[in-house]
Design brief:
178 residues, mainly alpha, Four Helix Bundle (Hemerythrin (Met), subunit A)
């Protein structure tokens, strides 16, 4: 259990705390800001674990599996909370979640064939913009409302582009499926 994997596990552990502060105002108006801080810390662990793993050659099968799963769990948890709070349209979240299910299924098929499919730059941009979008939506600052909307549309566009790119680059995985 190396440091990058510990950071990934820490990110997963933060998710229920994030959801509690997002959905249950345990600290009154401060709950939103506590949830935001938790989300930012969790997002930063995503950046750190990858950098550390690559820099010190600490890449593991556990990390390859769990890191993207932890990202999906964090972002989807946040998006569901934001839908519940009427901060983002449900149809946008449905597109994002469907993309994640498609890619996860695709990765499972690839794994059965002995192929590991690495994250693409489009996927990394998508995750980054989704995280920025979530941060802006949690903060809910009126002065940034137009920027928040622009980031939301960019995140949605990157979600679709990354899906198409992923499927196009790895279409051979689907050959010979019974």
């Amino acid at each position: 259990m190396n440091l990058p994997n510990k950071l990934t596990i820490f990110r997963v552990i933060l998710i229920p705390f994030f959801v509690v502060f997002m959905m249950w105002p345990v600290a009154g108006d401060m709950s939103k800001w506590i949830a935001l801080a938790i989300f930012v810390v969790a997002s930063l662990t995503d950046l750190l674990d990858g950098k550390i793993a690559r820099k010190y050659n600490l890449i593991t099968d556990f990390g390859k599996f769990m890191d993207p799963l932890a990202d999906k769990m964090l972002v989807i948890s946040a998006l569901i909370c934001l839908v519940a709070l009427s901060k983002i349209p449900a149809w946008i979240v449905v597109i994002i979640v469907c993309r994640e299910f498609i890619i996860s299924g695709f990765r499972l098929v690839a794994a059965e064939k002995g192929t590991v499919i690495a994250a693409s730059y489009w996927g990394k941009f998508k995750t980054t913009f989704q995280m920025i979008m979530v941060i802006l939506m949690i903060a809910d600052l009126p002065t940034l409302s137009i920027l928040t909307q622009i980031i939301m549309w960019i995140a949605l566009l990157l979600t679709v582009i990354s899906l198409v790119d992923y499927l196009a680059k790895n279409k051979g995985v689907l050959k010979d499926i019974k």
